[in-house]
Design goal:
Blueprint: E1 3-7, H1 13-23, E2 35-40, H2 56-67, E3 72-76, H3 85-95, H4 97-104, E4 107-108, E5 114-118, E6 127-131, H5 132-135, E7 139-149, E8 153-155, H6 157-160, H7 169-176, H8 180-194, E9 198-208, E10 216-226, H9 229-240, H10 248-255, E11 264-265, H11 292-301, E12 305-308, H12 318-322, E13 328-331, E14 334-337, H13 347-351, E15 357-360, H14 363-368
Parallel strand pairs: 1-11, 2-3, 2-7, 3-4, 7-9
Antiparallel strand pairs: 1-10, 5-6, 7-8, 9-10, 12-15, 13-14
Helix pairs in contact: 1-2, 2-4, 8-10
Bound molecules: iron/sulfur cluster (SF4) (2 copies).
């Protein structure tokens, strides 16, 4: 199972198409007449240059690869927040997916129907709704974006698959799995259940800082592909300089023996300056001298909290709509947050269209987890 690493500085259609052809040179599944679904990252309505969503040039190249070989291709995601068709179509247009579909002969998924699936061996959540478009795919291709993530430190192949879950059900998963490690366990179990046939990470222009919705674009010049999402995420983190021990999904994948030694096709070159990490990272590990009885209480006091910047807030209400703990209200066209009950999931910051939500970390947490630059 090789990992392909392509160094591509800009979204040049020819270079990306060439890379995609090479990635799929070891793809043995017949595609003619098949229903191929591309799971893209469409976190929220955002233009491609904001680096919030998978770049349409990558999506177009992957879609074209399959349509040229006689497959029916659908581009799909279940964005954060409550979804309705008008909102989804508007996100497709702004993110460039509409044009990518038109140019490649692919379709855009318009159905928000879902089906309850069961993960009987799950150690976290056993039943949840998955969008039909994903359960009905003959071939599923995960086309993710390399970004930092306020709760999970990093998002790439594994975290992108959380988007197969229907609409607001995603927020309820945050509510039920409030700590980073159980949530990461759920993400890893979900990725294994979804079992996508191939994973691509768009890191040509990635996102650092307060990702996945409010960070800064960062030119990385890499496009990555593999059949193993865990090993692929490990490589993406090595390139971005994101420490392994700060990425809960990698720690869980290692524990579950899902990280495999892989041959590299292309050179793994870490960036000269590592990514700036989110302000909102939780402390997940405490020194062993702290008694077990104290750990949970201490961890909950070390949690970062969202900080709302009223001078930037436009009162759109998207944060209140998604908040699983229902602790945000809109008063006088500004978002207000009640600390009591907040679970520090930072779903609110992910969907804020104007970066009006930052993070406040308790001073004590800096002792255990100093902010990385
Ligand atoms: S206020 Fe933000 S961080 Fe707190 S529970 Fe709601 S969405 Fe999560
Ligand atoms: S904080 Fe952001 S998402 Fe919430 S109401 Fe203000 S602008 Fe909208």
């Amino acid at each position: 199972m090789p990992i392909h690493i392509f160094h591509i500085e800009t979204y040049d259609a020819e270079a990306i198409s060439h890379a995609v052809e090479e990635m799929f040179s070891d793809f043995r599944i017949p595609v003619k007449g098949k229903n191929v679904v591309l799971k893209v990252n469409l976190l929220r309505k955002a233009a491609p240059d904001q680096a919030v969503t998978t770049h349409p040039a990558v999506v177009e190249a992957v879609a074209s690869y399959f349509t040229k070989r006689g497959a029916r291709v659908t581009i799909a995601d279940s964005p954060g927040g409550p979804s309705h068709l008008g909102q989804l179509m508007s996100s497709y247009r702004t993110s460039g997916m509409e044009k990518a579909a038109k140019n490649s002969g692919a379709s855009l998924n318009r159905s928000l129907r879902s089906k309850i699936v069961t993960l009987s061996n799950s150690a976290t959540l056993r039943e949840f709704p998955v969008l039909h478009v994903f359960t009905e795919a003959d071939i599923l291709i995960n086309v993710a974006k390399l970004k930092t993530h306020g709760m999970m430190t990093y998002t790439g192949a594994v975290k992108n698959l959380f988007g197969v879950i229907a609409g607001l059900a995603k927020a309820s998963h945050h509510f039920r799995l409030q700590e980073p490690l159980p949530f990461a366990q759920h993400l890893v179990e979900l990725a294994e259940y979804v079992d996508a046939d191939y994973h691509i990470i768009d890191g040509i222009v990635a996102m650092e800082g307060n990702g996945p919705g409010g960070g800064d674009p960062r030119a990385c010049g890499v496009l990555l592909g593999s059949q193993n999402p865990h090993s692929l995420d490990k490589v993406a983190c090595e390139i971005a300089g994101i420490p392994f021990k700060k990425v809960p999904t990698l720690l869980i994948a290692e524990k579950m023996n899902l990280l495999k030694d892989s041959e590299f096709i292309g050179e793994l070159r870490p960036l000269a300056r590592p990514f700036t990490l989110p302000d909102s990272l939780s402390v997940t590990f405490l020194p062993s001298w702290i008694p077990a009885a104290l750990r949970q209480a201490l961890l909950s006091r070390l949690r970062p909290l969202p900080a709302f910047h009223h001078n930037i807030c436009i009162g759109c209400g998207k944060c209140a709509d998604i908040c699983p703990a229902e602790v945000i209200s809109i008063v006088n066209s500004k978002a207000h947050h009640t600390v009591k009950g907040c679970i520090s999931c930072f779903c609110c910051a992910e969907v804020c269209p104007v970066k009006a939500i930052g993070a406040h970390r308790p001073l004590l947490s800096q002792l255990f987890e100093p902010k990385s630059k």
